[in-house]
Structure formats: C-alpha cells, structure tokens
C-alpha cells in the first residue's frame, strides 16, 4: 500500500513520457496532491477542470441507464494525452488519478497499465 505522495512520485518515475500527475476529489474539484506540471500548465487548474469531465460522464451514464463502471477517460491533444483513472475501493470513492503524458514519448497502453497498478496499490 502506498500513500498519495509516494504514488504520485512513482507515477512520474515509472511512466515514460509522464509530465504531471494529480490525485483529485471530483466531489469538490480539489487536488489532494500534485507532482510535475509547469508554469504554463497548472495541474491544480487542470484537476479542477477535469472534475467537470468526470461528473458529466457519470451523469450521462446515469441518464442512459448504463450499469458499467468507468475505468478511465482519455483525452488526446495534438501533443499530449490526458488520462483520468477513477479510484476503486479502499476509500477511493469520489477520487481519480489524473496523468498528463507527452504524446511523442509516451506509450499509451503501457501508461494505462502502469496507472492501473499504481491505483491498485494506493491507500487513500
């Protein structure tokens, strides 16, 4: 079991092309922890904005009567991938891991695999 700080550090260290990561509470929009980012890319602002994405998808699934669970949400930009992984179990209800990847350096399949492993080890 890893804590938030350790999980975020592992995310940047173990995922090729990762430039930033955050643990976010989508009920409040607050980032519980961040690592990486830059002056031109504020992870706290991105985390708050992506709570709207998660809420919209959950609301849409409810309206459609879909019973499946969201594993992750992928947003592709011309030079970045933004990966949102909802936390399951151990008090993680209402939380997601947010990962920013450099599209030129990242292997998306491996990033998803690693993020899933990090999520399963995370103790919130």
UniProtKB/TrEMBL annotation:
Entry superkingdom: Bacteria
Originating organism: Streptomyces dioscori
Official protein name in the record: Dynein regulation protein LC7
């Amino acid at each position: 079991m890893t804590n938030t700080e350790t999980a975020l550090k592992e995310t940047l260290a173990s995922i090729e092309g990762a430039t930033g990561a955050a643990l976010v509470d989508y009920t409040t929009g607050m980032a519980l922890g961040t690592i990486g980012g830059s002056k031109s890319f504020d992870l706290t602002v991105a985390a708050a904005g992506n709570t709207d994405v998660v809420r919209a998808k959950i609301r849409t699934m409810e309206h459609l009567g879909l019973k499946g669970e969201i594993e992750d949400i992928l947003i592709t930009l011309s030079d970045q991938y933004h990966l949102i992984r909802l936390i399951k179990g151990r008090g993680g209800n209402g939380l997601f891991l947010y990962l920013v990847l450099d599209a030129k350096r990242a292997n998306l399949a491996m990033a998803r695999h690693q993020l899933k492993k990090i999520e399963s080890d995370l103790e919130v």
